[in-house]
Write a structure and sequence with these properties.
The protein is α+β, with helices and mostly antiparallel strands. Helix content is 44%, strand content 23%.
């Protein structure tokens, strides 16, 4: 079984048939009426089309394959076997419960085993999962597990810290709060010194 075969099906492969653009815009007009406004007034005439285009950008991750992003690797690394860490990867997502924004940053590391991947691919991997309806805990696992299963490194570490609009702008209304989640695999879970080194690196970057 290949690493791709062992990964769960993407959300895009399990969704029902996608509605048309016209159906999406009609739904947005319904929501505008439900909110108490008139979608036919001048200021809202183009809003359904604008929102539909925005949703295409917000949720572009459904149309992209995270395995494919990591498919090109490099083995000519002159024996490099220390951790690779990319910090402060800013992302924008939306929570699946209220569709409110999640704004945060991810710190991603792996301990290579003869293969490395281009660093931009780590940022793209974060974006693919961020640009779907999410909960932060699930997104953390998805990023870490995909890296582990595709690259087959000696270990993977992912830490995400983010502010959730569903908590800061509605409900309990607690601005300034942030949620921190982590997933440690392989050497990062089993070797305390490796985990401490990673946490020390991201702690320094947070303070810069």
């Amino acid at each position: 079984m290949s690493s791709k075969d062992s990964l769960p099906a993407t959300a895009a492969s399990t969704l029902p048939e996608r509605p048309s653009r016209a159906e999406a815009e009609s739904a947005i007009r319904t929501l505008l009426r439900w909110a108490g406004d008139d979608p036919d007034r001048e200021g809202l005439l183009d809003t359904p089309a604008r929102v539909a285009r925005a949703y295409e950008e917000f949720f572009a991750g459904y149309s992209k394959d995270p395995v494919e992003i990591l498919s090109t690797t490099f083995s000519e690394v002159e024996g490099y076997d220390e951790m690779v860490v990319l910090t402060n990867i800013r992302f924008e997502s939306h929570c699946e419960h209220h569709m409110a924004p999640i704004i945060g940053k991810a710190h991603v590391a792996y301990l290579p085993d003869r293969r490395v991947v281009g660093i931009s691919k780590l940022a793209r991997l974060v974006d693919i999962y961020a640009k779907r309806l999410q909960i932060q805990e699930k997104m953390t696992v998805q990023i870490a597990d995909t890296l582990q299963q595709v690259l087959l490194p000696k270990g993977v570490a992912v830490v995400i810290e983010a502010s959730h609009g569903c908590m800061t702008t509605r409900g309990i209304h607690k601005p300034g709060t942030s949620l921190v989640t982590s997933r440690m695999l392989g050497a990062f879970r089993d070797d305390p010194s490796t985990r401490r080194e990673f946490m020390s690196i991201i702690s320094q970057k947070r303070s810069e």
